[in-house]
């Protein structure tokens, strides 16, 4: 398998994973609707940074600890579950507390692109399934004679590029929907849907064994 073949094969797997509706898409969609395009881009970049960190960790073998150590996996899982449930609960609370004329905020520092970036980063960093995915897939796409570290980083970058293209589609679609249905009303709906997704995912993460 050549480097080109490895990148092409991995791109197909990464693209299928990216377009399946999930936590990352929900967060970017919510940010685009309720906080605007800049915050959605910041959240997407944070998610991408988290993916890149996991990819590098997998390439050097660090995240293999999640596979080998039940304790390490469990600690990270519980930390991620608490983070997701807390974030989801705050979105649900703000969506019901504020009036229709107000836009709900996602963090104590409204208007901060840094907070939106950290939200995206934290969601991925505290999700051990991302690390397990990279550990399980990246080694299969490393051609003989190539550097595992450099190839792992290349594949993580490829996944990021695919993710950014998908998020661009999501952000553009969110802007159209907000203009069509009214930003405030659509923002409350997005907050409630995203809140339920976050809480549900967090509880599932906490209750699962592997």
Structural commentary:
The chain is built from 9 helices and no strands. It has 210 residues and is an all-alpha fold. It has one domain (23-207). The chain has helices at 3-19, 23-34, 37-60, 64-68, 70-97, 113-125, 128-137, 148-181, 183-207. The radius of gyration is 18 Å and the shape is globular. Helix 2 (23-34) packs antiparallel against helix 6 (113-125), helix 3 packs across helix 7 (128-137) and helix 8 packs antiparallel against helix 9. Helix content is 80%, strand content 0%. Residues 99-109 have low confidence and may be disordered. Keywords: Cell membrane, Membrane, Transmembrane, Transmembrane helix. Pfam families: LysE.
Helices and strands, with pairings:
Blueprint: H1 3-19, H2 23-34, H3 37-60, H4 64-68, H5 70-97, H6 113-125, H7 128-137, H8 148-181, H9 183-207
Helix pairs in contact: 1-8, 2-3, 2-6, 2-8, 2-9, 3-6, 3-7, 3-8, 5-9, 8-9
Subcellular location: Cell membrane
Membrane topology: Multi-pass membrane protein
Transmembrane segments: 6-29, 41-65, 71-93, 114-137, 149-177, 189-207
Q: Helical region count?
A: 9
Estimate the helix proportion, in percent.
over 70%
Give me the count of strands.
0
Measured distance between first and last alpha carbons: 32 Å
- Secondary-structure-derived class: mainly alpha
Q: Tell me, briefly, the overall form.
A: globular
Q: If you average the pLDDT, what whole number results?
A: 75
Q: In angstroms, what is the radius of gyration?
A: 18 Å
- The tally of domains stands at 1
Beta-strand content estimate = under 5%
Major sheet characteristics? none
What is the helix/strand order? Answer: HHHHHHHHH
Detail the poorly predicted runs.
Answer: 99-109
Protein name: Lysine transporter LysE
Transmembrane segments: 6-29, 41-65, 71-93, 114-137, 149-177, 189-207
Subcellular location: Cell membrane
Membrane topology: Multi-pass membrane protein
